[in-house]
Design goal:
Its main location: membrane. One of its GO terms (cellular component) is plasma membrane. Pfam families: LRR_1, LRRNT_2. The strands form two sheets. Strands 2-3-5-7-8 form a five-stranded mixed beta sheet, with no helix packed on it. The chain contains one helix and eight strands. By secondary structure, it is α/β, with parallel strands linked by helices. It has one domain: Ribonuclease Inhibitor (Leucine-rich repeat, LRR (right-handed beta-alpha superhelix)), CATH 3.80.10. Helix content is about 10%, strand content about 20%.
């Protein structure tokens, strides 16, 4: 769970969040399943992250590749920039990745 919390903290740190939608992401709470915009599976692993339409800016950190149980990542309608990290390839269970303009650019 430590790598998961570290990955989510890196994401929170690299993003500018003018609407404070990530304010519940508190690394002192070991279980991110209680954080807003996070959905976990039956094993308490992060399975979905829904950050769409929140005016978030910034870039996606390489640590996102540590969210290995992630099934869906919704980032559209934000102003994210920078490169898509190569570590996204570590997310073998990822079924849906929604881009920044509301079109699916990856789906299995």
């Amino acid at each position: 769970m430590c790598k998961t919390v570290d990955a989510l903290n890196a994401l929170k740190t690299q993003l500018q969040d003018p609407n404070n939608v990530l304010q519940s992401w508190n690394i002192t709470q070991v279980n991110p399943c209680r954080w807003s915009h996070i959905t976990c599976n039956n094993e308490n692993r992060v399975a979905r992250m829904e950050l769409y339409d929140n005016n978030i800016t910034g870039s996606i950190p390489y640590q996102i590749g540590n969210l290995t149980y992630l099934l869906s990542l919704d980032l559209y309608m934000n102003q994210l920039d920078g490169d898509i990290p190569d570590t996204l390839g570590n997310l073998k269970k990822l079924h849906c990745l929604y881009d920044f303009t509301s079109f699916v650019f990856f789906s299995r």
